[in-house]
Each structure stands twice: as C-alpha cells, then as structure tokens.
Amino acid sequence: MLDKRKFWKKQDESYELQDQIISIKKQPVPSHIAIIMDGNGRWAKKRALPRIAGHHEGMKVVRKITKLANELGVKTLTLYAFSTENWKRPKMEVDYLMKLPEEFLGSFLPELIEENVRVEMMGYRDSLPSHTVNAVEKAMRDTQNNNGLVLNFALNYGSRSEILDAVKSVLNDCKSGILNENELNEEVFSSYLMTSKHEDPDLLIRTSGEIRLSNFMLWQLAYTEFWFTEVLWPDFSEKHLIEAVREFQNRQRRFGGV
Ligand code: V07
Asked: Among 86, 173, 215, 235, which one carries the catalytic annotation?
C-alpha cells in the first residue's frame, strides 16, 4: 500500500535538493572532485554485518553521488575504488570487491549512458582479474563518445608506483631522444602520469574520519582543497557532497577577497 506521508516526504526532499543544486550552481563548482570512499567495513561492523555488505552499500552511494556531481556540472569525478595495498585483505573480500565493477555496471551502465557520463579507469590493469578489466573496458567503450561527467575509477591504483613509472618512462624517452631533459617541466611530467588526460583535482573528499592520503594522487593534489568528514561512505549522501562543495566555494571566496 502507498504510504502517503512517506511519498510527500520524498517529494519534499527532492524539491529541497533541486533548490540546493540551483543555489550552488550560482558560484564556481569544483571542476574535478576526487573522493577516498572510506568506512565501508566499519559501517558493516556497526551493524554486525560482513564487510562485503558495507562495500555493497557503498556501491549504491557511488551511483547517487555520480548523478549529483553530473547535475552540478562537475567535469571529472575520480573515485578511489581499490588501492594497490588492498590486495592484503582477506581473499574472499578481495574476490568480492573484484566483482563490484561488474555488478555496478550491470545495474547502472544504461543510466550512465542515458546521463551522458563517460566511464574511465586509472590503475594497474595487469594484476586485475580479466572479468573485472573486461567489464570496465566494455563500459569505457560504450561511453567513449559521451561528453558529460567523466567518472574516473582508481582501480588497483597507487601513487608512488605511478610516479616511479613516470620517472622510468621519462628516462627512457630521454635515452631514445623523444624527450630532451631540458624540456622536462611540471606540465611535461604530468603528461606521464595516469591522470594525463585530466586536470588536477580542485577538491578532495575523504570519509570516515581518517586524515591522510593513503598513497592517493600525491602529485596531483599539490594545490587541492581537502574536505574531511566523520561520515562513513555508505552513509554519505547528496547533502554531504553539497556541504563539501559549499565549503569549497566559501574558501574560494575568502581567497578571492584578499
Ligand atoms: C567498489 C564500492 C564503493 C566503496 C568503496 C569500495 C567498494 C564501484 C566500483 C566500480 C569500479 C569500476 C567501474 C565501475 C564501478 C567499485 C570496487 C569497489 C573495486 F568501472 N564501486 N566499487 N569497484 N566499492
């Protein structure tokens, strides 16, 4: 049976969100937002659920936040889905995580295509299971002509390795004469990183109260605004992203004033 009170509450919340989107878009919105989606295991533990239940809930939040970021006019949303250190977790948890891209895309790829989102990934593909890479690469192909939000998943990503590999490529290109060492500057070096196609993030969000970078985009975050929250990723909602963007806009305004 339709619960009328619930229905109107949902309607009201949706109107309130639309109002907030309109108001936030009157000021510059961060063009690239990066998120460390932490606290899924803790969320599950608090409910006496297995850790994978937290990851599953976290996946649904990815969908909500992608949709809102796209509506706000964010150009790139980079999400830290799996780090090179995450292989140390129990095998059954890793196996489950490696199925999440397929599950996510199985449910949401049609909507992402509909919303003009382009899926991308950065990270070391070689050590990922082929079923995972195939699913992600199919999504990248299916969305390659979309020109809305770029949804960039960091999958098996680690920033120190990324930087070291960039250094090795630079050395190689110098040796073979493709690059003159006098031409090497920050911009050229950036083009050797996995993020070569993206601008540096304007805003970094990390959930669940941890105040560190955990080997995420060390070079790219040099000038980024950081926003930390105690909220666990599965509890993260539209209102939190809006709060983070508001705070970003207030900081910009204060700097602009001097
Ligand atoms: C993962 C859900 C979000 C919370 C953090 C960890 C668990 C979405 C993806 C994904 C990745 C690539 C892609 C489409 C979706 C994902 C992993 C973990 C490994 F093309 N969520 N999510 N991948 N979690």
From this structure: 86
